[in-house]
Design goal:
- The protein is mostly beta strands and about 400 residues long.
- The strands form 7 sheets. The chain has a 4-stranded antiparallel sheet with strand order 1-28-27-26, with no helix packed on it. It has a 4-stranded antiparallel sheet with strand order 2-3-4-5, with no helix packed on it.
- The longest helix is centred in the first third of the chain and has 8 residues.
- The termini are far apart.
Length: about 400
Amino acid sequence: MKNALSLFLAGWFFSTVNAQPTARFEAQVIDNQISIGYGLALGDVDGDRKPDILLADKTDIVWYKNPVNPGDPWQRFVMARNLTPQDNVCIAARDLDGDGRVEVAVGAGWDPGETNDTTKSGAVFYLIRPQDPTQRWEPVRLHHEVTTHRMRWAKVGTNQYQLIVVPLHGRGNKNGEGRGVRVYGYEFPKNAQRASVRKPWKLHLVDSSLHMTHNFEIWEDGPQTRLLLGGREGGRVLAWQNNRWQFSGAEVGPGVGMGEVRRGTVGGKSFVAAVSPMHGNQLVVLREDSPKQVLYEKLAQGHALVCGDFLKTGRAQIAVGWRMANADKKFGVRLWAPDATGQNWTESPLDDRIPMACEDLQAADLDGDGRLDLVAAGRATLNLLVYWNRTE
């Protein structure tokens, strides 16, 4: 077990830097009329080599075009609408064929209370790109389990990809008990054309051992792809080996309920950041060689998490968001930065001038200045913000 966990936590090396710059971010409203903002993805939709914003909203799947001139409005385009009678819930975007434009899949049919009837809960669609990406995309319905909740593309070999789809519950579950959640990898068709993507995709069972899952992390280390699945029972690490998903033997925070999970590195060692428990009040850091470290206990329905080197210190920081006002009547997004040892963390707010009841959070360098920016979708605040990284 320990060797497997060491393998999981063996990350790429970042040199440590003692100086800690002061985080400075500037918020910009991209849209102040969204419906919920369930899920975000970032990627180049139109092939102009600039990351765009994709959003799974209540009834609409939309993308926002990164403007040519900084400060200009981000144009909004509807990709698909009313895919199911229930809400949309998640989205995945990644360039899979090397043409510089993302392929897109979405999850819908959101009904977390229905765990028996697949006609009333859950849906997975691949969206076929039109010649003009500002027009409607053609949805292709794929296999689904009940309570489809999260999805991401994963590279599992040379020019081989899978869409990893994580439901919230297993079939027939009640109060998080019953059958294990069946997490599948959907094999993206080779030389994908309209005809091939319309056919049933080959499914690979990733895991079915947990009984209530929420989110997951993927990292691709050379030829090996690993996946950390987080849920009410803790974290479980899977690896793509010998053309199938296998349990690596590593568990992260067993018994520590977690919703959002992300992986970062400091001082050449990896850590896992998590919101604990699911929709919980704690931001925690989990390492192999030390007890659980609680960084913050004032989240109210913590629901968004990103790890990245926003401050360019050579070590990862944690951005966390929550979607309800806490005891201090505050919500929003906060950044936590470690020192060179990774034991001491400093909190920084990210431009609280605009309210942000954060439902999802993603990071990318949106303006090409070499610094990671943040994109946040607000549930109760019904807004979509970019936090521009102005740190010097």
